[in-house]
Design brief:
This protein has 245 residues and is an alpha+beta fold. The chain folds into 2 domains: 39-50 and 146-238, no CATH class; 64-142, Alpha-Beta Plaits (2-Layer Sandwich). The chain contains 7 helices and 8 strands; from the N terminus they run αβαββββαβββαααα. The strands form 2 sheets. A 5-stranded antiparallel β-sheet has the order 3-4-5-2-6, with no helix packed on it. The chain has a 3-stranded mixed β-sheet with strand order 1-8-7, with helices on one face. A hairpin with an 8-residue loop joins β3 (80-84) and β4 (93-99). The protein starts with 12 loop residues before the first helix and ends in a 14-residue tail after the last helix. The structure holds flavin-adenine dinucleotide (FAD).
Length: 245
Amino acid sequence: MYVCERGPRQGSLDSFLYEMAASSGVQFHLLAKLEVNKLEVDHNNIIATGLETEVYEQLGIPYVPIYGYRGVIRTELDAVLISYMLKCTNYDFAYLAAGYGLLFALLFSRKKLDSDNLQEFQQTLKDSEGIEFKKWIYSTGAVPTKTHLFYNGLVLAGTLSGMIDPFLLHGISGALTSGKIAAQTFVDREGASREFHLLAKNFVWKKGLKEVSTWIPFKNITFPVMMWTDAHLRGVGFVPFSGKD
Ligand SMILES: Cc1cc2nc3c(=O)[nH]c(=O)nc-3n(C[C@H](O)[C@H](O)[C@H](O)COP(=O)(O)OP(=O)(O)OC[C@H]3O[C@@H](n4cnc5c(N)ncnc54)[C@H](O)[C@@H]3O)c2cc1C
């Protein structure tokens, strides 16, 4: 897992990429809403709208819904990263991370979360780390059930393309690598396709493993086995390790 800061602060990944793109001449239309049916397919369009359910609906991409609670507070803590796979996360994923003065927690699940899930997660954070968040933001979204670099003449990137790990829901590596691949399609379509399939090849295995881990009983014993198996499959969107890096 790689942890990154999202948002408008100087030093966040968003600010870093924004400045890099703007200095290369990219124009931003920050309030523009995507209207898929107005896109001309012979233009070079890359769509990367993340978890936004509406775009999956507009494009007709099959998806599963996703639910999340997130909280953020200021902190003196630094370099903290704890992942939680518990009953309250529905054996999906929650984490706590701190860096550069911010402490962030996310409870993320493909099964609906209710206030009991949140209360149990809050209690876990309090008991194990002595941490409390006063405010939690609830949001919903979608993740695709398959990977697609091309879809109806459009090029996809990021979560929408399926470059999100279906076992652990880690997304930033796949977002960055698939963004590069999406741009490559306009100069080297075959090479881009090859790279995409290499980086996405474990999607099906990890998705299958996730499905098994959801229904299999005796989670205290079986879930660690599933985690161990998953750890032996390279993450979706992760570049194969060459040994020289
Ligand atoms: C606060 C936060 C912290 C995170 N931390 C981590 C982390 O530490 N590690 C990790 O692996 N992942 C992390 N993630 C997840 C990671 O950021 C995503 O997996 C990744 O950014 C997905 O990239 P993407 O390009 O698919 O979508 P996004 O980065 O979500 O970008 C989608 C963009 O499309 C825009 N958009 C959506 N719908 C429309 C529309 N209809 N019209 C126009 N624009 C639209 C959105 O406004 C947004 O700018 C975090 C996410 C958040 C929000």
